[in-house]
């Protein structure tokens, strides 16, 4: 199996697993995996597919501009530009964009504040953060309809410790050095989002309990 | 495989997928797919089946009046008239009716207002709406026990941009040009309903946050 | 396949489906199917099994007293007496007892009132109730530790229209003429419980909305 | 099949089942099964694995100090010390550590009180508690970053009736004499946690209802 085939399989396996969780509602979401750095080439989701099916037209190889490397009738996902940004600004090898009810709720609840920070949670170790008072911050940006404006704004919030960006009412984009690590980061964040929402809905009901997060 | 067989398989696949999500509680729900326009013929769910099983008696071919085209011992779903309305008034090729806890909760919460509108959500693109301030409105009608009255009322709320109708405490009816598109619309609406309910349950708990939707 | 084998298979299929939904937490729950009326014989769950496994020791044949008909090392479920009551007092052919978070929450919320009634819900048709203002009432009894007292109290609340009984913080017992009908009744009630809980958690947050159920 | 192979299979089966429920988010969680008492040897999860995959490198055999019994490139889970404590202080044969949203929410809501007690719930019988007013108490300890301090604190809260310990925002550790019993205890507790959270979120909305748990 060539490297390209191995990376295709790695990405398709991640897609299958996320699809099983229903994390691509209404054909939303897209995924990519880096194939080469110089020039930047990556496999990215073809547009408009049913992500519960596994076919040999699920991904196509594109360059840093999101242009298909080989002639194809497939159209790269409209959000390919966000994936390119991630590969240009970080050490990511794989990048996932999914919508869940909980990540969209968090993006709206904290959209005005522009970020959400988690600390004091064991799951933070999924980001290889081991300090006693370690914290993970996820920036939240507005959902600009113009995809070029969106990609630019997206790029400005990615710092050295950023592993994910929430777009307001437009899901999360998360990455890691491999498909395995990207999925680990995504699972940990979704857990933290769900935990936060559930705790928040209870905190005013628990007598004498101060704000919990 | 004949066209009829291909359409049967398309509908059966959609049914399997929705059944896996438990969207047919208590044998509720029904599905149809259009076979011909003139005269109108469509495959529709036979009444009272366990929708988790896949059998060759799951559907029957009916005409615009809901009458079986060929002699059969099968009884068409009691709500076949709603499906006929959809094919007569829209460009639908497939029509799905399902009950979920969340679509019923939305139908009751907004039943008096007669509709619910979503805007500012990326998932709206599932309806091929790309404008910056695009919106999708779902009418909500009362659940008349008389099925003829129900079908008439149902027909009156379907406009050129309507893709779905909620019946109060009686699930959602949603359509698309194909099984794939109908399912895409359904998934997107269920996502929006769940998102709305979860956000609503939190909004009064978030200091200084105005009404969010 | 003999009648007994056919009934065993029917019950095992229902068990598999409910187990997939995680409706037997901590090995709780039990199921039965009637084999003969005179004398009353029914297959009932053997005690303490992992209900996610399908084995040929999952059920045993017992009589009206819950005594094994044939010599066996298996022990009938401690709650076999409730199943016997159902067969003696109704036309049930199959009886299911399961714990879900939502049925236990409903049993506690309405335990003092001794019952919960649903009306104005399409899902009520799962109970073959078609009137415009039809209603389904589920009695709720206290969870007596003494199983004989529990069975007696259980018997006193079963009227001609009763299809299920909630025991306070001890799950639901529901029945139907066949495995298919018992499962249909169970699914419809679980849907109504979940709907009620979700709507209730929102109703005070919706301005100007009166009590909804 | 040797005893070691049988125990490996038992543990791998439990892992598969918990993984299907998504109870190992972000590669969190770990499991072990006792192989011998004198000296204490047990199979424990290798660090950092994707628990949805089943491989022959999922577990390794360690001693009471958590040191690998045979030469291996595998690293034992960082929390192996907690498993050793359980085997030293109880009659456990299998020990499970998982994160769920609900067990973490409970650990935070009741962290200051240092424990949570359930009574009046049928599911308590999963712990072989049959008295009418039986109760099960789960201690909650702080999540010390230093694993040695954590293990010591963990050991101090384990009494003769303890079957599980919650670590604040760090999941639950639960045990039983076998994999089957450990899983039964875990399922019962997760059910009780989910029930408690859902009931709590409703209790202030139910007129005239006193504090329910």
TrEMBL record, chains A, B, C, D:
Reactions the enzyme catalyzes: 5-(methylsulfanyl)-D-ribulose 1-phosphate = 5-methylsulfanyl-2,3-dioxopentyl phosphate + H2O
InterPro entries: Aldolase_II/adducin_N (IPR001303), Aldolase_II/adducin_N_sf (IPR036409), MethylthioRu-1-P_deHdtase_MtnB (IPR017714)
Listed transmembrane segments: none
Domain of life per record: Bacteria
Name of the protein this chain belongs to: Methylthioribulose-1-phosphate dehydratase
Keywords on record: Amino-acid biosynthesis, Lyase, Metal-binding, Methionine biosynthesis, Zinc
EC number(s) stated in the UniProt entry for this protein: 4.2.1.109
Highest classification ranks of the organism: Bacteria, Bacillati, Bacillota, Bacilli, Bacillales
Note describing how the cofactor binds: Binds 1 zinc ion per subunit.
Domain Class II aldolase/adducin N-terminal stretches: 9-197
Binding positions for Zn(2+) per the UniProt entry: 97, 99
Stored Gene3D superfamilies: Class II aldolase/adducin N-terminal domain
């Amino acid at each position: 199996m060539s490297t390209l085939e191995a990376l295709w399989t790695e990405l398709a396996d991640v897609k299958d697993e996320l699809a099983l969780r229903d994390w691509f509602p209404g054909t939303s979401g897209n995924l990519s995996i880096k194939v080469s750095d110089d020039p930047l080439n990556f496999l990215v989701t073809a547009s408009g597919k049913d992500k519960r099916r596994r076919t040999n037209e699920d991904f196509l190889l594109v360059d840093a501009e999101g242009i298909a490397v080989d002639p194809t009738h497939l159209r790269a996902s409209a959000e390919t530009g966000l994936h390119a940004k991630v590969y240009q600004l970080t050490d990511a090898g794989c990048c996932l964009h999914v919508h869940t009810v909980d990540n969209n709720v968090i993006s709206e609840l904290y959209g005005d504040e522009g970020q959400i920070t988690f600390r004091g949670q064991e799951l933070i170790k999924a980001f290889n953060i081991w300090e006693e008072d370690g914290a993970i911050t996820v920036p939240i940006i507005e959902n600009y309809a113009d995809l070029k404006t969106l990609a630019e704004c997206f790029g400005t919030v990615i710092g050295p410790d950023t592993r994910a960006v929430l777009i307001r009412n437009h899901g999360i984009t998360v990455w890691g050095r491999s498909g395995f690590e990207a999925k680990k980061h995504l699972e940990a964040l979704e857990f933290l989002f769900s935990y936060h929402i559930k705790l928040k809905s209870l905190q005013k009901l628990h007598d004498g309990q101060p704000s919990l997060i």
